[in-house]
């Protein structure tokens, strides 16, 4: 029997709609600038760039409904995204086979310390300090593929204090879910428990303590998160 030198961390689990089960999270991959309008608002040309990914930590996923405003920043932005959860993985997965590996879908926010991310960009450094901080990915429960299918279109939106800020459609994603899975599998050994945040539409912006964010994706319900 293996003995560890210290007590290990608890496994991160996301609730699954209609069950008492938890989905065990292994890794979190996030695609950048996957909606053309958002790429443009961030100063980039979406037609000339291959996909790129960064990572958050499993512990960053948080289904509590609260987002603690983080330290060392004065410019935290919301980014509404569809979450894709994998039941299996592998290497060099074909696009045609990619959806066979999906367990389900959910709603998530990629909260970003934009000022810190911007400073890292200027210096050509990694983004983790702006993206992978504690509780930086508020999320909702997962919907099984057997219940919702594979959403490839449908309205995605986010409001702050009832004011609409972000709005788009899943069919506007530059890289679709099967393509994201296939691309990632060329560089990583994907596995059961991996999560992909699939990009955000335009309209990202700042939040303050006391704000209430309300996110929806057609067919996947709603997510409400209070900034505390």
UniProtKB/TrEMBL annotation:
It comes from the Bacteria. InterPro entries: Fumarylacetoacetase-like_C, Fumarylacetoacetase_C_sf. Residues 28-228 form the Fumarylacetoacetase-like C-terminal domain. The keyword S-adenosyl-L-methionine does not apply. Signal peptide: none annotated. One of its GO terms (molecular function) is fumarylpyruvate hydrolase activity. The keyword Chloroplast does not apply. It is an enzyme of class 3 (hydrolase). Pfam families: FAA_hydrolase. Its EC number is 3.7.1.20. Keywords: Hydrolase, Metal-binding, Pyruvate. Gene3D superfamilies: Fumarylacetoacetase-like, C-terminal domain. PANTHER family: ACYLPYRUVASE, FLUTATHIONE S-TRANSFERASE. This is Fumarylpyruvate hydrolase. It comes from Boseongicola aestuarii.
């Amino acid at each position: 029997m293996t003995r560890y030198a210290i007590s290990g961390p608890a496994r991160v689990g996301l609730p699954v709609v209609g069950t008492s089960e938890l989905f065990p999270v292994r890794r979190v991959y996030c695609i950048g600038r996957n909606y053309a309008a958002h790429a443009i608002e961030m100063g980039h040309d979406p037609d000339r760039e291959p996909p790129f990914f960064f990572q958050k930590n499993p512990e960053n996923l948080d289904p509590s409904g609260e987002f603690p405003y983080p330290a060392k920043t004065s410019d935290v932005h919301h980014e509404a995204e569809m979450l894709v959860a994998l039941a299996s993985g592998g290497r060099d997965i074909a696009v045609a086979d990619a959806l066979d590996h999906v367990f389900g879908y959910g709603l998530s926010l990629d909260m970003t310390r934009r000022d810190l991310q911007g400073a890292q960009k200027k210096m050509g450094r990694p983004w983790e300090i702006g993206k992978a901080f504690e509780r930086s990915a508020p999320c909702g429960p997962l919907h099984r593929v057997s219940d919702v299918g594979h959403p490839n279109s449908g309205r995605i939106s986010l409001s702050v204090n009832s004011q609409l800020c972000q709005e788009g459609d899943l069919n506007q994603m530059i890289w679709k879910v099967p393509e994201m899975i296939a691309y990632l599998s060329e560089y990583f050994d994907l596995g059961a428990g991996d999560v992909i945040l699939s990009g955000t539409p335009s309209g990202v912006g700042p939040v303050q303590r006391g704000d209430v964010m309300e996110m929806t994706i057609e067919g996947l319900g709603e997510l409400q998160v209070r900034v505390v």
